[in-house]
Amino acid sequence: MSAIYGIIHKNGDPVSQETAHTMATAMRHRAIDGEGSWHEGHVVLGQCMLTFKAADKTQRIPLVTDDLVIVADIRIDNSPYIRKLTNSPKDATDIELLLAAFRTWGQHCVYYLNGEFAFCIWEREHNRLFLATDRVGFKSLYYYDTPDVFIFCTEQKGLLAAKPLPHYFNEESLITYHFRDGDPVATHTKYVYALLGGYGLTLEDRCIRQVRYWNPSPGKYSFDDGEECAWEMRKLLTTVVKNRISTDRPIGITLSGGLDSSSIACLLAKELAAVNKPLYAFSSVLPETAQGKDERAYIERILQHCPNIIPTFVDAAAFGPFDDISDAFNHDETFPNPFFYMDHAILRAAKEKGVGVLFTGYGGDHWVSWQGHTVIYNMLTAGRYQLVYQLIMEFAEQEQRHPFQIVKRELAAQTSIYRALRGRRRKSLNGTALRKGFIRKYRQMIDLRPVTDVFETMMDNVMSGRVGQLPAMLSNRNEAYGIISAVPLLDRTVLEYMMDVPDQMFVYNGHKRSLIRHAMEGIVPDEVLWRKDKGKYSPDFMARSLAGISRADAITQSPEYALAFEKYLSKPAMSHLAAGTELSTIRLIQGIICSKVISILQKNGYLFEGNFS
């Protein structure tokens, strides 16, 4: 795919060669298969290429015509449809199809395009810029806007290279990191924003205007029974996998042994076997000398089932959650998650194997393979008593338990009284390394309610643009290694299908996560398909964390990290977390990551506001 960037001086002043060169240099690490730029007066547009197909290497970048200039990170899944409607030749590339679509429908072309994209079209005669992202937001696009200049870029580092100084730290990004709340368009740099999935942005007459062109709504599907629902999901998942393998580059997958990644792996392996191609799998396992349990047995069952899978077991023995935080932040351009060391170890292994496209099962447990813990309780409160009775009896028969045991688990356990008696507390503001005064300032933006209605939650995530944030980050991270990211379980067509799935399908026939289980019958081996346990992504995370936890005290006392603790983090909270549970350890590592990132930004000249001591 590609990275794109641009600078438009809205006041008409020419963009200097030095500024254009600075931005191009900042993005050169993305120019795996070539680069190109277009510079005319007050406008600079550039593109760094990572090709999906060998034929794409012949594509001119940017694409320049008499009236238009296009830079695009794009994969069109419905190219036959676009080709037919625009009378384009059979060998037209995706960027050329985008050009034909824009000539046919103008900015409304986004309504016709299916796939993943972030693109820019400059109309030379009208002095007008149009940016757009795909409906979900698989491709990141950031922008900075003032009365005199507009800058956009796939990566924040490219944008910051051209953005006028100073840079200000956006402290709200700490709330987003710890609570997954906050404004999804915001970044860790004030005044630098993300163009979220499903949006188009127009710059004309020195003013920008954003329009959301995708407002998803249920009603596309109607199901008569569970088997039909599961069969439709199988067809959809097969299609979205096929859309992402029309490449001549080697294909890989991060295979955890869990239900989501195993489902994608088995579908992928089947499609690749049909054309005599291998699938490279990368799995996180324990080092050979380590004690404990990992997912190797389930992974090996998948390997037996799919003989064209070539496995690589990754233990990242030399790394842990306290190592190379600066490098991870540089790649991720956000506060790294505590398991970043395994993410990057897998990417290094995939790069060594020459993998060009790396699939992941990420996003499945958000919706496609949701556990459905609250389904029966929600149906009871909605007065659907007959269906409640039916589902309880199905669980009782499947698990060989008394119905009252199922009632206790599925109904009583969802009540606040039961949780209080069992000592289960709802999410709280406590338990992080953040200062209490800092948290109080942003209390109104933090939603601590548990997920009770997955449809409502996911629709909110889709509409807010939050659902595309991590896939967009994965895309940038992977492409820095020369690898294209594939996240099929969050494909737009899958999300639209999920909007019409009846809630009972998540607990259908006496099984949790029953939708994907029934959809994958005959595709995934039974030992994996019906497993009830789930291992950890990094199986010895706690051992690695405890081995390095002594660093936490040194960090809290070091002058290098003083700013972070003066303004945002609490030393007593860090000490308390060091003696806690696995969740506390994760929160402690988040605190360490935050202190190191803030120190990095401070060294890079960022300015910080506010005092919460």
TrEMBL record:
<dbReference type="GO" id="GO:0006529">
    <property type="term" value="P:asparagine biosynthetic process"/>
</dbReference>
<feature type="domain" description="Glutamine amidotransferase type-2">
    <location>
        <begin position="2"/>
        <end position="190"/>
    </location>
</feature>
<dbReference type="InterPro" id="IPR014729">
    <property type="entry name" value="Rossmann-like_a/b/a_fold"/>
</dbReference>
<keyword id="KW-0067">ATP-binding</keyword>
<dbReference type="GO" id="GO:0005524">
    <property type="term" value="F:ATP binding"/>
</dbReference>
<dbReference type="InterPro" id="IPR006426">
    <property type="entry name" value="Asn_synth_AEB"/>
</dbReference>
<dbReference type="Pfam" id="PF13537">
    <property type="entry name" value="GATase_7"/>
</dbReference>
<feature type="binding site">
    <location>
        <position position="94"/>
    </location>
    <ligand>
        <name>L-glutamine</name>
    </ligand>
</feature>
<keyword id="KW-0436">Ligase</keyword>
<dbReference type="InterPro" id="IPR051786">
    <property type="entry name" value="ASN_synthetase/amidase"/>
</dbReference>
<dbReference type="Pfam" id="PF00733">
    <property type="entry name" value="Asn_synthase"/>
</dbReference>
<dbReference type="GO" id="GO:0004066">
    <property type="term" value="F:asparagine synthase (glutamine-hydrolyzing) activity"/>
</dbReference>
<keyword id="KW-0315">Glutamine amidotransferase</keyword>
<dbReference type="InterPro" id="IPR033738">
    <property type="entry name" value="AsnB_N"/>
</dbReference>
<comment type="similarity">
    <text>Belongs to the asparagine synthetase family.</text>
</comment>
<dbReference type="InterPro" id="IPR029055">
    <property type="entry name" value="Ntn_hydrolases_N"/>
</dbReference>
<dbReference type="InterPro" id="IPR017932">
    <property type="entry name" value="GATase_2_dom"/>
</dbReference>
<protein>
    <recommendedName>
        <fullName>asparagine synthase (glutamine-hydrolyzing)</fullName>
        <ecNumber>6.3.5.4</ecNumber>
    </recommendedName>
</protein>
<dbReference type="InterPro" id="IPR001962">
    <property type="entry name" value="Asn_synthase"/>
</dbReference>
<comment type="pathway">
    <text>Amino-acid biosynthesis; L-asparagine biosynthesis; L-asparagine from L-aspartate (L-Gln route): step 1/1.</text>
</comment>
<keyword id="KW-0547">Nucleotide-binding</keyword>
